[in-house]
Design a protein that fits this description.
By secondary structure, the chain is an alpha/beta fold. The chain has a single domain, classed as TIM Barrel, CATH 3.20.20. It contains 10 helices and 9 strands. It has an 8-stranded parallel beta barrel, surrounded by 8 helices. It is globular, with a radius of gyration of 18 Å.
Amino acid sequence: MDLLRSFVTETERFVVAHRGASGTAPENTMASFQNALADGARMIELDVQLTSGNEVIVFHDDVLGRTTNGQGQVRTQSLNDLQKLDAGSWFSPEFVNERIPTLEQALDYLHDKAFVNIEIKPPKESDFRLRLEKVLETVFAATMETKTLFSSFHHRTLRELKERYPLLHTAAINVPGDKRLPSELSRETGCEGFVCSIHELTQKRIDDAKAHDIYIGVYTINRKDQFDKAYKMGVKALVTNFPANIAQWMGEAEGLS
């Protein structure tokens, strides 16, 4: 059974936790995933990078300084050294010694709890296929292929992924300033989903997506006015740093309808 396809088809709208509940816990950590689940997120969005040994870790930047007490390029560090770093204190003393999880650890935890959206960053050409191979290897080993959405600004990655594994689920993230419609990106990449910022959400894009059976996700919805716009326009996947707020506003809106 294709769990993600069934879920997306049958669910009118749902909360996607951006890097976990990154408004209440350090992004891309187990704590942020735990908070997201507790706050009502049905899907967890996370980012991936490779270590020097080609292990896949859950981490956004390609350098360490913003969200850990380390320095330097992620790609040059061993997994052992990376998992010694403090990935929580920058956010709050409450999260001192929170660690960088591997993708394997994250998927193992989320396996029976949520759907997962793995964002694949635009790669360096030397890592283009290697990173995709390692991510796919991890997802298949975790038996999460029917519960995982692969998204990227790098549409070539999505096109190659879909050509090789047509049953996997993909969503093209709109490159800021790109005016193409969801259906145009779908023809280019084979994707079923289209993701854009709340600022680039238009009725024309909504209408085009609906006409071509493409579902829309919008980021990053953290304020009530942003939620109101996305809700009114019928956005399916509401991407947020604060899942509890979106879940509350959804409940209030649906209670009034």
